[in-house]
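Weekly modeling sync, notes
Attendees: S.R. (lead), two postdocs, one rotation student

Agenda item 3: backlog of single-chain predictions. S.R. asked that every request posted to the team notebook include the full sequence so nobody has to chase files. The rotation student volunteered to paste the first one in as an example of the format we agreed on. Action items at the bottom.

Example entry:
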Amino acid sequence: MREMTAAMARRTALAAQGLASAHPVTERGASARAVQKVIGNTRLLQIDSVSVLVRAHYAPVFSRVGSYDRGVIDAAAWTDTARKPRTLVEYWAHEAALIPVEDWPLMRWRMELYQHGRWGGAKTVLERSPTLADDVLDVIADRGPSSAGEIEQALETPRPGRKGPWWDRSDVKIVCEQLFSAGVVSVATRAAFVRHYDLTERVVPPHVLAQRIDESDAVRTLVAQSALALGIGTEPDLRDYYRLSQKQTKTAIADLVEDGTLEQVAVTDWGAPAYLHVDARIPRSVKGAALLCPFDPMIFFRPRVERIFGFHYRIEISPPQHTRVHGYYVFPFLLDGELVARVDLKGDRARSELQVLGAFVEGDRDASVIADRLAPVLRELAGWLELESITVGERGDLVSELAASV
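Predicted structure, as returned to the notebook:
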């Protein structure tokens, strides 16, 4: 079995994710082709509702190419014309995500699994209102892309009083999500980040919709894509990328090792077998600086982050403010292949400010060196988000050096 150092494995992982070299900074920003290349490398962009800085699916592209037109992603995901057909579609991949349209058939087995919805609550709703799913589909068929609220209005369905942001979903919304999870409807577009559902045959191209792929073949392809996107990974790494089961992943890995797509290798100090994709690149060095969103594919599996970077990272959105260690929406700062700092960021549109609420050095590194390299990244980020200024708060051992640098 080939042996690799932990440093080699880290460089391999960064190269696979498009984070091994500095991106050029231009006035025009990155091209649409550069954006598409990022999506081709990562194979998915996780979607999340948090908008304290920028929606999660936009941030990983910025981390890899710098300033770019977010409309490129919007057009790829939520518009569909003869001249520019849809190239991205929403589904449950690694949580809710945008994936290439051609990958939609790879999820059919999961759609079968989710016939009663992803959380099971739809079964109770449909037992209580057995015609509701058909009624919802009739409205969508007649009206075209529709939000759950618009469907409720069309059906004249009363909505219960609000109880909170996560537990006040109406029966119509629950059924819409069940139909989405089952692949019956898809997301045609979004307005103010609200899903507008349409019949899947009007969202997914006919030649894609017609494809039937056995679960074992689909899972094998997903694991191969995970391995290529990660470059190198353990079985749990490859499993987590598309949230597969251990049984599925182990069988697929065995097949992929046998056909030469994956090579089992031993990585120093990893403590578990690793699998290197045959097309993975192992650069001699890694350069560049990037802020990584909490939902970035490079870091969304926290055990992998700790194994590769020795960096213990947990998102602190849910805990009460007084219990947070580093902040609400903290971006690890990647510098020349290492995670060297944590930066709590917020975009205040009313004040047109990029706010650094806190900044913390990781370990005993030199704060002045980190601040000098972080400052231009923050300036580019502010420009990309059309924020006029950068303000630095008082929390953390990096803020004084950073305030002087920005």
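Discussion: group reviewed the output briefly. The chain has a mean pLDDT of 94.
Action items: rotation student to repeat for the remaining queue; S.R. to check formatting next week.
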